[in-house]
Amino acid sequence: MLKPCDVLIIGSGAGGSAAAHHLVRAGLRVALVEKGLELPRDARTLDVQQVVHEGRFKSAETWLDGRGKRFAPEEYFNLGGKTKWYGAALLRYDAREFLSDAEHQCPAWPIQDQDLTAYYAQAEQMLGVREFECEPDLSRISRRLTRTSPAWRTEALPLGLSPRIADNAVEARHFDGFASPAGLKSDAETVFLNPIRQSPNFELLTGSTVTDLVAQSGDATAIEGVRLADGRVLRARVVLLAAGALHSPRLLQRYIESAGLTARLPCYPNVGRNLKMHLLTAMVAVSPRRMSDAIRKTRLFLSTELPHSSVQPLGFDGELIGTLIPKIIPRWLARQIGNRSYGFFLQTEDGAHRDNCVRAASAASAGLPVLDYDAARTPAALAEHEQLVRRFRSALLRTGMMAFAERIGPAGTAHVSGTLTAGANPASSVVDGDGQVHGLQSLYVVDGSVLPRSSRVNPSLTIYAWSLRIAQALSSRLSQTTNAIRSAST
Ligand SMILES: Cc1cc2nc3c(=O)[nH]c(=O)nc-3n(C[C@H](O)[C@H](O)[C@H](O)COP(=O)(O)OP(=O)(O)OC[C@H]3O[C@@H](n4cnc5c(N)ncnc54)[C@H](O)[C@@H]3O)c2cc1C
Predict the structure, then answer these.
(1) DSSP codes, 11-72
(2) What's the 218 CA to ligand 1 centre distance in angstroms?
(3) Whole-prediction pTM value?
């Protein structure tokens, strides 16, 4: 058995690392269990062939989709989770995205936007979120696009990148979908874990998979630890689920079922449901002129006619785009096209639907986990996304750029969220506004699973902010009890 601690965290992505940082700095004894290992610090995580074409760092875990077809979702199991690979576009949700929007199938949050304001600010400050100057090619595209298509406007895209990245030609062109060996990207490991790695009250177990939640003997509703794949048990006063939106719900589902709590917990039928992924399309726009921008991802495009959608440039340079052009095109021509191209990432908020879900592996699914997602279940979102693709393509055409689009299918789980949604009512949600699983003592969720809405922008800043907020409340509560126990025993 391992040493007991105050808080045990499962997973080191955005949610797990932010909580660990706060709780360790508050003086609590924290253990973080991460299934993956540290990424190599050499240039392998910047190598287009290994990262993009061979997918060497991606998880190879096989899942079934809703029709029983095998596939591998875009998941990453390594220290820092998916944030090591993210594009570091770190945006706040808009105030209206905390409210219900019935037409778009979006439920309300159990908290108000103001409840996250201070934590958004804290996360932005720690992550060094900043705006970068718009480079010449993108300036020209945005100017022409907003002039010829007045429904569109652009604003600066806040990025979690070091200003020094502009001086590193390779990293400036390879941060979106790549991991930074030089530490020029504000990912969860660099910002939240590295500063606490040597703290005496912090224990980090990498390469260790949590297989089960463990309860107090005699009370199945009081979670007091976890079991690891090697059979060891780690006990804690509080357990935080932060394994990511495809994985946390499966741990919880398995626990509730094996502990015989399915009928006792009104939140059980919601576990794994209301999965959101954003409706996503990648678009490559080709122009007659060569493009030489490096960072690229510096502006956000919004349309007054598409309130649930946004567009951001991909941080891919022409060389990388050239390698993504189908092999049927001769390589010299693909390189020429790549050098004249700009990539864009189009995203639309998907609503919540109970049948969009994650299920733990079972005999019925041939021992494989299931991700059942169909965009047709959220028709308003699908209609808006189709309009987004049409309108942005036309707007680019008016600037003289010809655009080619490809929808990102259900394997594109980069932005997955909402499988343990936060809500006031246990009959329609899984955790309460304080992050605690309805009906289970000492079990909290701090990853993207909690998001009731996916919003029109990327999720990480909101996950960091939620996690810091839950950690702040927990540290006050746990420190108070610790102090009370100490003074009673003196
Ligand atoms: C290519 C790419 C680009 C992206 N770009 C952006 C962007 O620009 N902006 C943005 O906001 N977001 C972006 N995202 C999304 C963002 O990375 C995720 O939303 C965020 O990392 C989710 O945080 P999380 O804590 O929920 O989960 P994760 O970051 O996935 O972390 C979960 C961790 O739990 C570990 N784990 C899983 N199961 C277990 C287990 N049983 N035991 C122990 N550990 C376990 C995993 O290994 C992982 O490290 C991008 C993602 C990708 C892949």
Answers:
(1) --SHHHHHHHHHHHHTT--EEEEESSBPPPSSGGGG-HIIIIIS-TTS----EEETTS-EE-
(2) 35
(3) 0.97
